[in-house]
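Before going further, learn to read the protein records used in this course. Taken together, the tokens spell out the fold as the letters spell out the chain. A record is reproduced here so that you can trace the correspondence yourselves:

***
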Amino acid sequence: MSDLVTLAEIEAAAVRLTGVAVHTPLVAFPGKPLHIKAESLQPVGAFKLRGAYAALTAGAPVQGVITHSSGNHAQAIAWAARELGIPAVLVIPNNAPSVKIDACLDLGAEVVLVEPTIEARTETADRLATAHGYELVPPFDDRRVIAGQGTIGLEILAERPATDVILVPVGGGGLIAGIATAVKALSPTTKIIGVEPSLAADARDSFLLGRPVAWDPRDTGRTMADALRVNRVGDIPFAHIAEYVDDIITVTEEEIFDAMRQLAVKTHLIAEPGGAVATAAYLHHADELPAGKHCAAVLSGGNVDPGLLFG
């Protein structure tokens, strides 16, 4: 098997997700040649449902599941586990928004809080998976998860085949890895641009250096985009990024908040900060983007802390 996820794997994931994941709409942004892929409309409020369910249904039935996540993937695993009738244990950083932790508990999962580093998350998840004998489904460093996220790319091109540029948020890299793999297989000239906060730009640095590099969690923790505070892009996603992604750019906190406001006012879509970065790049960094008449921005999630949105 190739080290990289194949189009066939993504198409197989799409079949398993039929009737489970919402085929989310591309919502026109008024006055601009931009369409928003509204993954905030998934049952768990974020794209992560695709990868979580795709991973848990990729092989033989499992007895239980363990994961680590800043919130959205954890919630997706909890939802998928409930649908499949299996227990879920979620390792979550202790600085995750309470709205995301509460949602996981409401879905019946067990939550274990740890220090907000990839090392603490992965070590704890590995230990618990061994202790329980449960399936470990990482949030992004897993080809099954990447295949599930890639179904977004299939849907964008099915609805708007002439899309020239697709803007994608980058945290651990699973989302952009999947989308880029699907899109480049079907439309090689479409440009894939990653977007992340300037306060958590480890993926941008990794892209420029040609290898994954880590940021100090104390630095990435400064951004309001909690879903993108991962301090190092995954090894498997990075292999796909290096092969298929055209560029990675950054946006400021002010630009993120403005994009959240404009999405709410102009498209009636609620975006959490991490979900708004792709739109922020289009609105504030047009000069850094490839030329194109038709652009899509992935709104990856809408699980915003009410205090941030209304405070």
Summary: The beta strands are 26-28, 34-38, 65-68, 88-93, 110-114, 135-136, 165-169, 191-197, 247-251, 295-299. The first strand starts at residue 26 and ends at 28. Residues 151 and 157 are 10 Å apart (CA to CA). The two ends are 50 Å apart (CA to CA).
